[in-house]
Design brief:
The complex is a heterodimer of chains A (155) and B (717).
Chain A (H helix, E strand, L loop, with lengths): L1 E7 L2 E7 L5 H8 L18 E4 L2 E4 L12 E3 L12 H8 L9 H14 L5 H7 L10 H16 L1
Parallel strand pairs in A: 1-5
Antiparallel strand pairs in A: 1-2, 3-4, 3-5
Chain B lengths: L9 H5 L15 E7 L5 E7 L1 H4 L4 E5 L25 E2 L5 E7 L2 H8 L3 E6 L14 E2 L10 E3 L2 H6 L3 E9 L11 E7 L2 E6 L4 H11 L7 E4 L15 H13 L1 E6 L15 E9 L5 E13 L21 E10 L12 H19 L3 H7 L17 H12 L11 E3 L2 E13 L5 E8 L4 E4 L9 H13 L6 E4 L16 H25 L5 E5 L2 E6 L1 E6 H8 L3 E8 L9 E13 L5 E11 L6 H21 L4 E2 L4 E2 L17 E6 L23 H13 L15
Parallel strand pairs in B: 1-13, 11-12, 15-16, 20-21, 27-30
Antiparallel strand pairs in B: 1-5, 2-4, 2-6, 3-5, 7-16, 8-16, 9-14, 10-11, 10-13, 14-15, 17-18, 18-26, 19-20, 19-25, 22-23, 23-24, 26-27, 28-29
Classes of the chains: A alpha+beta (155), B alpha+beta (717).
């Protein structure tokens, strides 16, 4: 077991994990931050998307022990039911979710997508949101939510 | 009341607050992981779990040698064999051992150290290779295997054009983003399951009977289910395993399937081989339809993909014959997948119709209009409601179908061949008995309870809308509790049946609550009531306004509740949903990858309760149709007897960049026969008719007729 300081959503967590534990499993099983979802555990679906130092990554492909000294942001860190992030509010308004299981990953990707400026057109949004699978296929609505959030971000 | 309403569970889902099956904390939680068979048929000849047991943190390893004994499950569809009961393997991916450890990593490590020796048995996984062993299927739960009306030979004899063609569709996997998971807790003789399911009552029936537990000692909960699409409808071995081992070990245990295991653990849409005979006169009147379907089932159980169901009702025709045969193969049991039956079946029929239209030189839409069925041509019954003609007209108008040139290859933009195609969608309406309860509290809150599931279709949002409509209150005043076997019983959330079935029960419960309130307030249960906050207005000749807190205090109660139920009764009508789907595709002349540029779809599905969530069902269904048409295929290596692409990279799901402009509309409709609320089902309808519309558009673009799905680049070279 390796002692580790994980900084998540602005809070420091002192934990002990094995070297083989992924950031995703550390978030879900050790810190009980289950908003970050496991869909494939091998970087194919995007449900586990979090931000590390502001960049979106698949947390299932990152080891927890390698995140020391970095700032991890999960879906729980960007907004709450009472005070949602503008992207989260846009997802609800545009009905950009159905079963909701891919949604936290979509939201984290969307926040990064807006910040990265990959929102010049619907086609550009579609391309830069294609790392996140939605089997319910709320894709059209996700594009609309990202477009709304990008416009609000620019304004 | 009803109308476009953002989903009430949206905020919980977008913030990560919504909790799914494998996300509940327990101080004594252990992790289970499955060892699955790498071969499709075998006898297990030796077992060595010693190395696995030595892994730190491993609590126990179970195989058929030491697993608790189980009883055959009853009361709900079960898609597997009883796990760990004998030394036989019937399909690749069948659970053969289970490791339980304190932490997930330990369980996973130990899985790799369990050693099993297999004596392989001969096994066939290719249903076409065993087509000659196919048997007439006994009456399936979705209707008779075979039907015939009229004189097929006479219909063929009088035709001017007779199309005989073979169509095929690929094996596909549901692939919800939440893999199936069960968290089981055994405490004080009571088993509680948190399960990723489309039907808590199904899980309850199978688990309680397999474990021989009294019904009141088992409770199944599912507040949110991360997609199912059919894969979480039947009950499967992993749920029984989690329950069995929780009881064996005590405390809490979590079993989450890996993505690879999700390809062999809960069914798949079977591939189909469909043979069509479609005969028509020169004027474009159908004189004979024959649809023969072959699909695989497993060697240990039966599932019939009823692909010819749509052909029984789609068109007016004096002679219609349909047959279904299944051939047993060494795979997990196939199971319904959005959309079952008509999903693969309407591909064959609707491409055949397009082929006959081309042969006759009649516009494909016009040919369908000439054969429009006013009554169900197989049963002779009238349809409960059918707005298909309006779908055709509105769809054609939105798409601009009238401008379609007849000749193939005649629409071209630079290097892009453009094609326009269309198809009819037909889907049988499934209905289940349902019960619900509605309780009004003194503070004005209305709590509606029904044991159905929220799998993404908007149930949390829609049911309060229906109850609020009856009570006259804003929907925000009503909350729904669901996903719990302690709540009133409903069918599973599958078959596009929940809104119409549970919605009818919720409406009945709200009506019963209104009558009870009227009775308590004025002595007359027929008085009209209207709820607004804590004010109850009762109109009984005079209008009286009551404050709930005062009224309830006077009556000496905290709350007032009433139950309601609904069950499908009417069988004098043929019940189906309908749609018209129009597709535009582009195919590059040098690298002919077909791409969908736009889809227009108009549906006849009865009353639409919430247009916002309903639109999501239909746009989602259209994207499923794109996946079926162009992407999704589970390939089997028949030498090894296993699916080769058990991941989300090899099994291609549609991504955001695959999605074109989608234009969806509903015909204004109220179906007084299908349900208590005017609705029929929509969840699966959206994925029907899309693949044939795309295939017909590909033909229009390229002149190439593709009769197998998915359409691949090599089909168009």
């Amino acid at each position: 077991m390796i002692p580790l300081v994980l900084r998540v959503n602005g809070r420091e967590h002192r934990i002990e994990v094995e070297a083989r534990v992924t950031l995703l499993d550390a978030l879900r099983d050790v810190l009980h931050l289950t908003g970050t979802k496991k869909g494939c555990d091998r970087g194919e679906c995007g449900a586990c998307t979090v931000h590390v130092d502001g960049e979106r990554i698949n947390s299932c492909l990152a080891l927890a022990v390698m995140q020391e000294g970095r700032e991890v942001t999960t879906v729980e860190g960007v907004g709450t039911v009472g005070a949602p992030h503008p992207v989260q509010a846009a997802f609800v308004a545009r009905d950009a979710l159905q079963c909701g299981y891919c949604t936290p990953g979509q939201v984290m990707s969307a926040i990064a997508c807006v910040r990265e400026g990959h929102t010049g057109s619907d086609d550009e949004i579609r391309e830069w949101m294609s790392g996140n699978l939605c089997r319910c296929a709320a894709y059209e609505q996700i594009v609309a939510a990202v477009r709304d959030a990008a416009e609000a971000h620019r304004a | 009341m009803t109308g476009a309403r953002p989903r009430v569970d949206g905020p919980a889902k977008v913030t990560g607050a919504a909790r799914y099956a494998a996300e509940w904390r327990a101080a004594d939680l252990r992790h289970a992981a499955l060892v699955t068979s790498p071969v499709p048929a075998a006898t297990i000849t030796a077992v060595d779990t010693s190395a696995a047991e030595r892994v730190p943190g491993v609590v126990a390893v179970f195989t058929h040698h030491n697993a608790p004994r189980l009883r055959p499950p009853v009361g709900a569809p079960y898609g597997g064999r009883l796990p760990l009961q004998d030394n036989r393997v019937h399909y690749e991916g069948e659970p053969v051992a289970v490791v339980v450890a304190e932490r997930l990593e330990q369980a996973r490590e130990a899985v790799g150290l369990v050693r099993l020796d297999y004596a392989p048995l001969s096994a066939e996984t290719d249903f076409r290779a065993v087509a000659d062993t196919a048997v007439p299927t006994p009456p399936a739960r979705w209707g008779p295997a075979d039907t015939t009306v009229g004189d097929l030979a006479a219909g063929i004899a009088e035709a001017d054009v007779v199309l005989r063609a073979e169509y095929s569709t690929a094996a596909r996997h549901h692939s919800p983003i939440e893999t199936s998971a069960t968290q089981a807790e055994w405490r004080d003789g009571v088993l509680t399951l948190r399960d990723a399911t489309q039907g808590v009552f199904n899980v309850h029936a199978v688990v309680s009977s397999a474990l021989d537990l009294p019904a009141d000692r088992v409770r199944v909960l599912a507040e949110y289910t991360g997609g199912g699409f059919g894969s979480k409808g039947y009950v499967w071995p992993h749920q029984v395993i989690a329950a069995m081992l929780a009881r064996e070990l005590g405390g809490a245990l979590r079993l989450v399937l890996t993505r690879a295991q999700s390809f062999t653990s809960h069914g798949y849409q079977p591939p189909t081989r469909q043979r069509l005979v479609l005969a028509a006169t020169a004027e474009g009147r159908f004189t004979a339809i024959r649809h023969d379907s072959l699909s695989p089932t497993s060697t240990y159980g039966e599932y019939v993909e009823m692909t010819a169901n749509g052909s029984r009702v789609a068109y007016a025709c004096p002679a219609i014959t349909t047959t279904h045969r299944v051939a047993p193969v060494a795979t997990v049991l196939p199971t319904p997948m959005r959309a079952p039956h008509e999903g693969p079946g309407m591909f064959a029929l609707e491409v055949a119709v397009d082929e006959v239209a081309c042969e006759l030189g009649i516009d494909p839409l016009e040919l369908r209009l000439r054969n429009h069925a006013e009554v169900d041509p197989t049963s002779g019954k009238p349809f409960s409601t059918k707005g298909l003609l309006a779908c055709y007209a509105e769809g054609a108008r939105r798409f601009g179908w009238a401008d379609r040139p007849r000749a193939t290859g005649s629409l071209r933009e630079g290097d892009q061949l453009i094609g326009w195609g269309m198809a009819t969608a037909v889907m049988a309406t499934m209905r289940f008995p349902a019960a619900a309860r509605a309780r009004l509290h003194a503070d004005g809150r209305v709590v509606v309870e029904a044991g159905c599931q929220e799998i993404g279709t908007g149930t949390y949002t829609i049911m309060p809308q229906l109850a609020a409509e009856v009570l006259g209150c804003p929907p925000e005043q009503v909350v729904l509790r669901l996903g719990d076997t302690a709540l009133p019983r409903t069918g599973m959330t599958a078959g596009s049946s929940t809104t119409l079935s549970v919605g009818s029960a919720v409406t009945a419960a709200a009506e019963a609550l209104a009558a009870r309130l009227a009775l308590l307030a004025t002595g007359d249960p027929t008085a009209a009531v209207r709820l607004d906050g804590i004010e109850l207005t009762v109109k009984n000749g005079a209008v009286e306004v009551f404050r709930l807190d005062e009224l309830f205090a006077r009556l000496g109660v905290d709350s007032v509740a009433a139950g309601g139920s609904w069950e499908p009764r009417e069988n004098q009508r043929s019940m189906h949903t309908f749609g018209a789907v129009f597709a535009e595709v582009a195919v590059d002349v040098d690298l002919p990858v077909p791409r969908v540029r736009r889809l227009v779809a108009v549906y006849s599905a009865g009353r639409i309760v919430n247009p916002l969530t309903a639109r999501g069902q239909m746009t989602g269904g259209l994207v499923w149709g794109i996946g079926q048409a162009l992407l999704e295929k589970s390939t089997t290596d028949h030498r090894l007897g296993r699916f080769v692409d058990k991941n989300l990279a090899g099994y291609r799901l549609p991504v955001n960049a695959d999605v074109p402009d989608l234009d969806v509309a509903f015909v204004e409709e109220y179906d007084p026969h299908a349900s208590g609320i005017g609705a029929r089902g929509i969840g699966e309808l959206g994925s029907v008719g899309v693949a044939p519309a795309i295939a017909n558009a590909v033909h229009h673009a390229t002149g190439k007729r593709v009769r197998s799905l998915p359409i691949a680049l090599e089909d168009l070279l």
